[in-house]
Every structure is written in C-alpha cells, then in structure tokens.
Description:
Blueprint: H1 8-11, H2 16-31, H3 38-45, H4 49-52, H5 59-84, H6 91-112, H7 114-122
Helix pairs in contact: 2-3, 2-5, 5-6, 5-7, 6-7
Amino acid sequence: MLTPVRKRSDYHHGDLGHAAIRAAKNLIDSEGLNSLGIRRVAEATGVSPAALYRHFENLEQLKAEVSAQIRLELGEFLKAKRDRTPLSRSKSRNALIRFEALGEAYIDYARKHPRLFEIAFIHCDEKPIS
C-alpha cells in the first residue's frame, strides 16, 4: 500500500499552539478529560506529536493552557450575559438583577459544557506559559 507523500507545506501550521488548545478543548467537550492525549491532539491538528512538544512541555502544560482558555471564555460568557440583562430604574435593584444574571449564566455554562467547566477549575493552580 502506497502512502501519499506530503509536501513540506502541508505540515506548516499558522498558530499551532492555539490550534492545539482549540482541538484539546473540543476533545474534552465531546469525550471528556480522559480522552485527551498528545497523540489525539496532534492528530486533530494534523501534525506530529513531536511538533506539539515544541509548544507544550507535556500534557499537563497543555491542560493548564486549556484550563486558562476556558476560564477566559467563561468570563466573556458571564460579561455578555450581564451586558444583555435589562435593568430597572432602581439602581439598588440593578445590583441584584446583575448578580442573579451572573449566577444564572455561570450555572448555564456549567450545564451546557460540564466537561469544560470541570477542567477550568481542576487545573487553575497550574501556570500556563502564555
């Protein structure tokens, strides 16, 4: 069986670090944290595992980067919900309205993406490189 020869340009990846984080996040969201591995992420991004090791020291560092990214996205999700929340004429009531909206958004995100929500806080004590 002949294996197709890839041109060198096929291996070029504009931003492999971010692509790997996105791929890892998608794997976790669909299959859970136990599905995550360097080989799986490499396969999803179309590169060799060795290429990923140029961006991440190990799987734990990749998990820390994914965790940091998810926390950023969760923050944006919460801000968007807060900004879309209709306010009342009472300034004192508005604080409570926004607080409730943030709580609902937090729970909504956790329900929609339970696997991502879990890793966001499992690996938050580890320092990402970026």
